[in-house]
Structures are given as structure tokens and as C-alpha cells.
Amino acid sequence: MTPHHPGAHSHGHGAHAHSHADGHTATEPDWEAMAAHLEREAELNTPFLEGAAAWLHDLTGNRPVTRVLDLGSGPGVSTTAPAHAFPGAETVAVDSAPGLLSRARARAEREGLASRITTRRADLPADLPGLGTADLVWTSNVVHHLGDQRAALETFAGVLRPGGVLAVRERGLPTRCLPRDIGIGRPGLQARLDAAEEDRFTAMRAELPGHTRTVEDWPGLLVAAGLTPTGSRTFLTDLPAPLDPVARAHVRERLARTRDSLAGVLDAEDVATLDALLDDASPDGILRRPDVFYLTATTVHTAVRA
Questions:
Q1: 175, 170, 141, 265 alpha-carbon torsion, rounded to 10°
Q2: What is the 3 state secondary structure string of 30-64?
Q3: What's residue 31's pLDDT?
Q4: How far apart are the first and last CA of the chain?
Q5: Cβ distance 77 to 46 under 8 Å?
Q6: Quick one: 171 exposed, middle or buried, by C-beta within 10 A (0-12, 13-18, 19+)?
Q7: What is the DSSP code (8-state) at residue 153?
């Protein structure tokens, strides 16, 4: 489970990282080049991943779980959470980027899970039927990178064993890291960045092969895939100010990616404000100001195959 593939990649809401899927366009980043960024963001969200895995363990009840697929595993942070939660299962990290899968194998080794975590290189959704069936399928911010989201969920549902659970991490709330008024520039910077990112996200989806506009009612889409919803849950990642150096450096990198990707659409004042925030020698910079925090809400939707 990653906020990769974020997955979890860099799109929406300040270089939001998540997992990796097939079907990239010119609007998408180089996932392997972002490996360290993806891994660090996933590590910041470890409490969410562990909480989600525990919830999924409760959802499966007394039914044995012997195989888990992590679709769009990215560097594997999301893979170790269900591996710990389901110690009797083989957990498979699935991604299209060999470099990210290499990180996933190294992480499994470090956490003593190498005997229970395997990796498979695959393009989603085309290669999914060749990966075999599973009692639990987890996918983190992957579906929105596939042109036909409804068809993708039908494919994902198709590899579930009877009684198996599909867990889809999609959307939530935008990440926040600064107060509304930061003392420089026009107040409300993050809200304007969110609006610009939403437009960029829409443009990214429009360029995907086979793009089909879909009402993003995730429980409804799971029903359309032939599944029975078993609940949606939102998990909070709340790292208050003052941030530790690792989280602070991650926030700075997120803002730097945002500045690079949105400079052409933001007004001059907002670009100047971002430049001030990225000035490491300035007391107004992200690395020195005391009011930087990290707050995000992540939603997971689940459904079971009858």
C-alpha cells in the first residue's frame, strides 16, 4: 500500500506521491527518478498504511487470507503493511517500474519479510489476469491513472477469489503544510495551488489512452464491478508543527515540484511566494520557518466478491 504508486507519483495537491501504473503520458513524471521521494512520502504515511491494513484484517474476519496483491506497489512501503497484518499470506508487490520493485525487495529483506513478499513486473490492467487470484487486492492511487476507471475496477475484481476483498485508495483531502496566511504574498496560497492542480489532474486524465469520463462514485463503481461494498474509511496523517527534518525536507521537495509544474499557470505573485518558501537561507523558507506542518486525509473504499 503506498501513496505511490504518489503508489503510490506526483500529481495533484503539491506533488502528491502515489503508486505507479501503466499508461503514462507526457503529463506524468518519471516514476523511477522519483523513487526516493515516493519512498519517503510513503514512510511519512506509515500510520495510515498500518491502520488500513488492520481495518482490512478486521473486514476479512475469520476467512483465511493466503494471497495478497498490492497493485501499483511503488517502492514497497505499502506492501509490508499487509504482509505484517496477514502473516499467513504470500504478498505480491506489482508494479511496472523495475527500480521501484528493487526497492520493494530490499525493504522486504530489511523487515524480515523476504520469504513472504514477492515482486512481479506488470502493466496494469493488461497484465493483471496473468498474476493469478488473491483473497485481498490493494491498489493505491492507481485507478485514476487508467483511462477507463470502471473497466479497470472490473478487471481488478476479476482476480478476487470468492469472498475476497478489493480495497481502493483514491482521493481524500488535499495535503496541507502551511497556514492560510504565511506573512508573505497573498493569503490562501494552498487553496490556489489546489485549484491549479485539479485542472492539471483533469488534463492528465484526458490524455490517458482510452480515457472515459466517469462519475467518481467509488462505492458505486465497485457495485458496477460486481462487488458488494463493505465500507469506506478515511485515515488522517497529522504531523504538527514544528516538523522534524525528514518531514520538513519532504514538504520542501513537494513545493519545489509544485512550483516547477505550475509556474506557467500561477500568477507572478504566487510564483514569487513559492520562490521565497524555497529559499533555504531565508527565515521565510520551508526549512527554517516554525509553522510548517503535514496534514492529509486518505480515503480507502472496500468491497467483497460474493
A1: -50
A2: CCHHHHHHHHHHHHHCHHHHHHHHHHHHHHHCCCC
A3: 74
A4: 24
A5: yes
A6: middle
A7: H
pLDDT in tens, 140-184: 999 999 999 999 999 999 999 999 999 999 999 999 999 999 999
Number of residues in the chain:
306
Number of Cβ atoms within 10 Å of the Cβ of 127: 14
Per-residue cell: 153: 475496477
Cell numbers representing residue 258 in the block: 509544485
How much of the chain is helix, strand and coil, in % rounded to 5? 40, 20, 40
pLDDT above 70 (res 12) = no
- Three-state secondary-structure class, residue 68: strand
pLDDT digits (tens, 9 = 90+) for 91-121: 999 999 999 999 999 999 999 999 999 999 9
Question: Which residues touch 19 (CB under 8 Å, ≥6 apart)?
Answer: 2, 3, 4, 5, 6, 7, 8, 9, 38, 71, 72, 73, 74, 78, 95, 139, 140, 141, 142
Confidence of residue 28 (pLDDT cuts 50, 70, 90): low
212 vs 199: CA distance, rounded Å: 17
Instruction: Return the C-alpha cell found at 214.
Output: 466517469
**CA-to-CA dists, residue 8 to 29, 61, 171, 236, angstroms:** 13, 27, 12, 16
Q: In the structure, what pLDDT confidence band is assigned to residue 33 with cuts at 50, 70 and 90? A: confident
The number of angstroms, rounded, from the C-alpha of 75 to the middle of its chain's C-alpha atoms is 11
Cβ pair 256, 286 in contact under 8 A: no
At 240-258, the pLDDT tens digits run 999 999 999 999 999 999 9
